[in-house]
Design goal:
By secondary structure, the protein is mainly α. The chain has a single domain, classed as Orthogonal Bundle (Hypothetical Protein Yqey, Chain: A, domain1), CATH 1.10.1510. It is built from four helices and no strands. Helix 1 runs antiparallel to helix 2, helix 1 crosses helix 4 and helix 2 packs across helix 3. The longest helix is centred in the C-terminal third of the chain and has 24 residues.
Amino acid sequence: MESDDLRTRLRRRLSGALPDQDRPAVSALRNALAALDNAEAIQPEEGLRLEASEHFAGGVAGLGAAEVQRRVLDAESQRRIVKSEIEARLTAAATYEQHGQNARAAELRLGVEALLAVLGSSA
C-alpha cells in the first residue's frame, strides 16, 4: 500500500538505528512515527454518549463500543507531517545553540539527517 511506504521506511531505518545505538536517529524516527500515529487518531464525536462500564474505570459497555476506524493518511500528508517534525527539530536546535547547548543542538541535527534520509529515499 503506497500510503504505508513512508512509515515502512521509517520503521526500517529505526530497526537499523537501534542495534547501532544511534540515539539521535532513534529519537527522531520514533517521534516521526508517533506523529503519524497521532495524526491518524479520530476525535470523539461531539455529544456522543456511551454507556459507561460498571466493571472498568473509563471503560464503555458493549463489545467494540469504543472502537473507531483510524484516519488513513495519504503519502503527501505523511510527508508533510515528517517535514513538520524536521522543522521543529531545526527550530529547537537553533534555540539550543543560542543558549550555548551545542551538543544537544548537534544531536537534534543528526536526527534531522536521519529523517531527511528517509524522505530522500522516497523519490
